[in-house]
TrEMBL record, chain A:
It comes from Stutzerimonas marianensis. Residues 2-119 form the Response regulatory domain. The keyword Cytoplasm applies. Signal peptide: none annotated. InterPro entries: Bact_response_regulator (IPR050595), CheY-like_superfamily (IPR011006), Sig_transdc_resp-reg_receiver (IPR001789). This is Chemotaxis response regulator CheY. It is found in: Cytoplasm. One of its GO terms (molecular function) is metal ion binding.
Amino acid sequence: MKILIVDDFSTMRRIIKNLLRDLGFTNTAEADDGTTALPMLKSGSFDFLVTDWNMPGMSGIDLLRAVRADDRLKHLPVLMVTAEAKRDQIIEAAQAGVNGYVVKPFTAQVLKEKIEKIFERVNG
Amino acid sequence: MTQADQSLAEFEATLRAHAPQLIESLQQGRFDEATQMFNELNQARNHGLYQEVGKLTRELHNAIVKLEMDTCATGGDPSPITDATDRLSYVVEMTEKAANRTMDLVEESAPLVNFVSYEAQSLTADWQRFMRRDMNAEQFRDLVKRIDHFLQRSMNDGSQLSQNLSEIMLAQDFQDLTGQVIKRVTRLITELESNLLNLVLMAGQVDRVAGIQHDREAMRLEQETKKQEKQPSNGEGPQMHADIREDVVSGQDDVDDLLSSLGF
């Protein structure tokens, strides 16, 4: 299982990488923006995308839309991990096809639950 | 009486003074004389206006100097905004360093703790066997060696762990420095706001002198619509008042409730 972690703050990427490793996911890669993430996704055979919303080049929501619009990527499970907490935004992300939404600050437990839930649905 | 009233009064006085001459010049067909007089009358009328404009531009220049945006005036020093930006960059840098340092120490400490746990578990199994007298002499000697090694290791690792925890504590020192910097930036911003407010007041005076009325409410609405059209899904960053705002969720449970209520 290859996971791409996208966030413009390196400390957050590190935290998520560590949490994923604790959950047994050791094959991870990182990108600091939607613009660098998209080409990686297109050529990289990733199984899961974890992304922030606010990023200077291409935001997480735009990345999500680009993924859903791409024939080869449209079924990629996407988890948003973000500080964005407005109801409208959560709804917008859900309508754009996000598989899970975690608000910051979050706990390891929450992250674990959301990931497991996503893979239950994907495999079920 | 207001500046405007005063100007009007002055103009009326000048008009009264020149009126007889003006009438005579016109009646006599001495148009160049009449033109000259009209010119003087005009200047008298504008005199008050020029004075007000002069006063206004002087105040405007003062406000600009106060804003310290004019680098010629400050001798090339960074403007308050540049200063504030630099300081905030410093905050980002410091907090990133502290976070990484803390995480480094945690990553170093985890294996130490894991080893103690793991080895204790493994030794327990053998210790139980010993307790049940299910162990021969050689196995017992072996167990003794392992326990000895384990105790040694625990002591050393315990000491290292202690040190790491201390350093993690120290790594939080950024808060003091970043706190000071942020307070300073807050002060800069408050000053800036007050100076900008001054400019706004002056803009009001310019309107008054020029006799123009601007419909601020209409302009504001126009700006709002433009903003909405451009960036509907612009992020707002972490919310400060999630507990009182209706349009913001208060935590992960809220998010989950919202999504499941919509069938997601």
